[in-house]
Structure prediction request, 287 residues.
Amino acid sequence: MNRQETLNLILLNVARKVHYADWNWKGVNSPFARLYMVESGYARIIIPEGSFTIRPGYLYLVPSFVTHSYENDSAFVLYYLHIYDEQGIFDRLNFPFEVPANEIDALLMKRLLIINPGRELKRSDPDTYDNFQTLMQNIARSNEHGLDTAVETGGILLQLFSRFLGKSCPKQNVKDERILKILRYIRENINREITVEEMASLCFLSNDHLIRLFKKENNCTPLQYINRKKMEKAQLMLTIGGKSIKDIAFSLSFREISYFHRLFKKITGKSPCQYKKQSSLERKLEM
Prediction:
């Protein structure tokens, strides 16, 4: 991550949780990162690197899309944060699992709880919330607070995350710098119609060469990647509500509404109308 890039972390959930030998889940794999701080007691987290005891005095980070398990056989109290990373930083950097915590970190955790009430998980079973639609709903919920809360929350997340960022290192399989440039360009212009020609010109490549490089790094073509990201944003906009399906399609530079409908259903398995209706129903049930 270079100094010109910004890091935008979105708080999905935060809570202080008391467990009594009931924090036992296997094969958890989430589209968001998890940050833990233990207040008292002990538990174990099993990640691909091994099995680790988590204990008071440290912060713990489990990046998004890392399969892991939990084991706990006694009384155990911890703070947890679920964080969504818009910049794909976990694709580019390796982070330590454990870093020392200090008194300020404990105060920051408590402050997050105070300014973000009602953001705890309704149920502890990962199967009830580990899905993309719930992720989109949580992101939408994060936009319900005022600007002051959003700014303070973002600042606290950056402070906590900086403890890990200072000890991070680039992944060995670093993507081609030209492709990283293209990914940043897509992220910054996702509302526009982006062509292969303009992406290729950014890196002084031919269209065919760009497509080959991009597919090698991402297992999909540039246009497939763009469409997937556009549909992710469309899901968020449908979950938040306020805009018609037609307006959402136009805001993402789709010229034909019928094509937007077909693409949305192909990627999500639901039509935009079905998705919007289901999201609206689930929000009502949570109230």
Notes: The beta strands are 9-20, 33-41, 43-47, 50-54, 58-62, 69-71, 75-85, 93-94, 98-100, 169-170. The chain has a mean pLDDT of 85.
